[in-house]
Design brief:
By secondary structure, this protein is of the alpha+beta class. Helices cover about 30% and strands about 20% of the residues. The chain has 5 helices and 6 strands. Bound molecules: zinc ion. The site of zinc ion has 5 residues, from strand 2.
Length: about 150
């Protein structure tokens, strides 16, 4: 059964991982993480609406610690808390345009990362914590400040 977290986002798409499927890694969230995912879906609804009601393609949402390790995710990744999502919105524009648009919204995001020019990482703060509003770009190596194109 498809469980909707919000009007346009299902639990399935925020749990789905090809790696988890292939390697038979359990990616079941705890009730606490489910609540975080519901909050994340609510923020994604705002993003979707602000981008002009375009489709949001989620490539990674929740990652259990085992899954995060298997894909080489950051050690303290917010994905493991159900508080981060990687996505694209090609009908809106490039990944960089999408990231910049989202950064201009009053979402209370903790972190937006332009990753490899291929997807936007949107991270929320822990419940009750103050969002940092950090903007970064990542092309491998060090994280770069701001939402920028890959340096030549
Ligand atoms: Zn991410």
């Amino acid at each position: 059964m498809v469980k909707k977290l919000s009007e346009h986002f299902t639990l399935e798409e925020l749990l789905f991982s090809q790696t988890a499927t292939r390697k038979k890694i359990d990616n079941t969230p705890t009730p606490e993480i489910l609540a975080n995912l519901a909050r994340l879906a609510g923020v994604l609804e705002v993003v979707r609406a602000e981008l002009g009601n375009v489709a949001i393609h989620v490539s990674s949402g929740y990652r259990s610690p085992a899954l995060n390790k298997a894909i080489g995710g950051a050690k303290h990744s917010r994905h493991m808390r159900g508080l981060a999502v990687d996505f694209t919105a090609p009908a809106f524009g490039t990944v960089l345009q999408t990231a910049r648009k989202i950064a201009s919204l009053d979402l209370g995001y903790d972190q937006i990362i332009h990753e490899f020019g291929r997807w936007v990482h949107l991270g929320l703060a822990e419940p009750g914590a103050k969002p940092q509003g950090e903007l970064l770009s990542y092309f491998g190596g060090d994280y770069l400040k701001g939402l920028i194109s890959k340096p030549a």
